[in-house]
Design brief:
By secondary structure, the chain is α/β, with parallel strands linked by helices. Helix content is about 35%, strand content about 25%.
Length: about 250
């Protein structure tokens, strides 16, 4: 009997410590993508950060939000070092990641120089053009198929860099989003762009309406975490929290 009690005590000792479940979940995000996420004076700002904080308030989950260039954030998530917010879905990512419900919808726009406007309705209208895009970004399967076939991508790590490339005539158009907010954000933070602010034109309609998610690699086995996140997301949609957060930005 003493041996049995000792064995049961040992098994109990070897069970995972419940406190570990409260450890913050690392979430990676883009550091220069207003109004979704960006760094300002060392502080994380943006709608997606507010959404994560609201999920924390409605669950027992805690998040450690880490902002960095998008490609690095994606690679960290791909290596199962944490989740990724602001992520689009495509065929390959569906194989690699488990996803939450939609947390944000991008409206991606084309920015050109005044006098170089062109009509846009479908991807075919980008044929032969050089398009400035975020390094490592995907906006769905149609966009991925068009890269290198219909248009030539010129990848960079920031909207400021993209707009400077546009001014220099090295690209035909810059892809920005969500909406025109990143354009003004970049202009306000760069002297050269400010001097040429009247030369930029945002084309309509949006190129892509791109749904964004929180994703974790399947190797992380976070389906239970995603279930809790989804419950909070549904509550936030029902009580108008999402609309209030988006209205701030």
């Amino acid at each position: 009997m003493r041996s049995l009690v000792l064995l049961l005590s040992l098994c109990t000792f070897l069970l995972p410590i419940p406190a570990l479940a409260a450890d913050p979940i690392v979430i990676f995000a883009n550091d220069t993508n207003p109004p979704k996420t960006w760094l300002e004076n060392g502080h994380t700002r943006g709608a997606l950060a507010d959404i994560l904080h609201e999920i924390e308030a409605r669950t027992n989950l805690r998040f450690d939000i880490r902002l960095m260039p998008w490609k690095r954030a994606y690679m960290n998530a791909l290596e199962s070092r944490g989740g990724l917010i602001g992520m689009s879905r495509n065929r390959m990512r569906n194989i690699l990641f488990d996803f939450s419900e939609v947390v944000f919808t991008d409206e991606l726009r084309l920015v050109v120089l005044k006098g170089h406007e062109f009509p846009y309705r479908t991807m075919k209208d980008l044929e032969g053009k050089v398009l400035g895009v975020t390094r490592g970004a995907s906006y769905g399967d149609e966009f991925d198929r068009a890269k290198g076939r219909i248009f030539t991508p010129s990848e960079d790590s920031s909207t400021v860099c993209r707009l400077r490339m546009l001014l220099a005539g090295r690209i035909d158009a810059a892809l920005i989003g969500p909406g025109p907010t990143p354009l003004q954000f970049a202009i306000d933070r760069d002297k050269i762009l400010m001097e040429h602010r009247d030369r930029f034109v945002v084309l309509n309609p949006p190129v892509i309406r791109d749904e964004n998610y929180i994703g974790f690699t399947k190797d992380m086995h976070y389906l239970n975490i995603i279930k809790q996140i989804n419950k909070a997301i549904r509550e936030m949609r029902e009580d108008g929290t999402f609309e209030r957060i988006e209205a701030r930005y």
